[in-house]
Specification:
193 residues, mainly beta, twelve-stranded mixed sheet, three-stranded antiparallel sheet, 1 helix, 15 strands, DUF7781
């Protein structure tokens, strides 16, 4: 969406009407993904069962069994998805630079009888690295019960500019915009031994 401009002065034109507040600032509080995670800590490992609901229009659902070490420097995560019929062994996110992470993994699909590997470069900024921020916020409500909220904000900062002797307005303003959304809500129940 192109940001609207308001020209004032300079060429005698009437200023453009600013866009409505709904076009400039939009926050969606309805998450597109809901996760229910049940975790049990057993002898240095965390065993988890995840139920994932997404895409309300077609009511997609997925279950996942996850196994990973409890150590703070955990280097791997194993997952099994019975509906898809695949297993994966993923590394933890490895920092490449301050804002860039690498994750590698190997997996096998029983439905396709195929084994392969994958890799992913990611950053918390997402998008073009400037105009989008993605993050997860965790809230510990009480011991063994956490709420994790994945959110995203896309923004364009306002800009003021102008010109003299060029036929352009002396003063011109481009309104910024903010589109934010809650993408994921995770309810996490943990039972420690």
């Amino acid at each position: 969406m192109a940001s609207p401009s308001s020209g004032i002065g300079g060429n005698g034109d009437e200023p453009n009407e600013p866009a409505s507040i709904d076009e400039l600032f939009n926050i969606n509080f309805v998450p597109s993904e809901l996760f229910f995670k049940f975790r049990k800590e057993i002898e240095g490992l965390r065993v988890g069962v995840n139920f994932e609901f997404f895409n309300y229009q077609s009511n997609e659902y997925e279950a996942k069994l996850v196994l990973k070490p409890l150590a703070p420097d955990r280097r791997w995560k194993f997952s099994y998805r019975p509906i898809r019929g695949d297993v994966q062994l993923l590394s933890k996110k490895i920092p490449i630079t301050k804002f860039l992470n690498l994750q590698v993994g190997i997996g096998h699909s029983f439905q396709m009888n195929a084994t392969g590997w994958k890799w992913k470069l990611s950053t918390s900024f997402g998008g073009d690295g400037v105009s989008q921020i993605r993050n997860k916020t965790s809230i510990g409500l009480f011991p063994g019960f956490d709420l994790r909220i994945g959110w995203r904000a896309e923004y364009v900062l306002p800009e003021i500019h102008g010109a003299v002797g060029t036929g352009e307005p002396v003063f011109n303003m481009t309104y910024g915009r903010l589109h934010a959304s809650i993408d994921r809500v995770e309810t996490i129940l943990t039972h420690a031994s």
